[in-house]
Amino acid sequence: MNRAVYAVMGTVLFAALIITTAAFESVLLDRDVISEPDAGTLLGPAMFAAAVLIVLLALLRSAAVADAVEGGAPVMRGAFPAQPADDPARRAGARPSLDPDDEFRPGHAPLLPTALATTVLVYLGMLLVGSVWYGLVRDELVSTALFAGRYALSPLVLGSALWAGLVVAGTIAISRVEPRT
């Protein structure tokens, strides 16, 4: 199966997990996930959309890096008028080869750094989107900092960041396994 399919499947899993986490948080703690009454109805979905986009881009990047290292990256030249088709001889001289047996290049996309970076980016991305959105709704700069401080340790943001790291690590690990034929 193509690694991009794994990336999309991992992203859908992440979206389902953060929606489920938000629902359980709301039911078990008996409070709204975003407790500000003047935040509006789109603040939570905007934070979720930012997190899902970060996970999708991290997984697609990891898939592209792994395909490039293994030499299986799709090449599409000449598809646009500004992108002329060129011959492989000229392209080989301008670009270093990605030999999977090269001892200085990893044989696959790095698992742990990608998962940790995605965890941090989801955490910061959700806080940034939420605080900027709330600051714009309230028309006060101080509301931005207060929202970020209030939700920095919330189960919503921490749970989403944790799920992001686990899903990215799991998806990258699963995409490395060669299927039996």
Overall description:
The protein has 181 residues and is mainly α. The chain has one domain (3-72, 108-176). 67% of the residues lie in helices and 0% in strands. The chain has helices at residues 3-29, 43-70, 88-94, 112-138, 141-151, 155-176. Helix 1 (3-29) runs antiparallel to helix 2 (43-70) and helix 2 runs antiparallel to helix 4 (112-138).
Category from helices, strands and their pairing: mainly alpha
Q: What is the number of helical segments per DSSP (H or I, 4+ residues)?
A: 6
Shape: elongated
Order of helices and strands: HHHHHH
Distance between the termini: 12 Å
Low-confidence stretches: 93-98
Tell me the count of domains.
Answer: 1
Major sheet: none
Average pLDDT figure = 83
Q: Give the proportion of residues in helices.
A: 55-70%
Strand content: under 5%
Radius of gyration (CA) equals 20 Å
**Using DSSP, what is the number of strands?**
0
Descriptive tags:
181 residues
Provide a compact summary of the structure.
This protein has 181 residues and is mainly α. The protein is built from six helices and no strands.
Please outline the helices and strands.
Layout: H1 3-29, H2 43-70, H3 88-94, H4 112-138, H5 141-151, H6 155-176
Helix pairs in contact: 1-2, 1-6, 2-4, 2-6, 4-5, 4-6
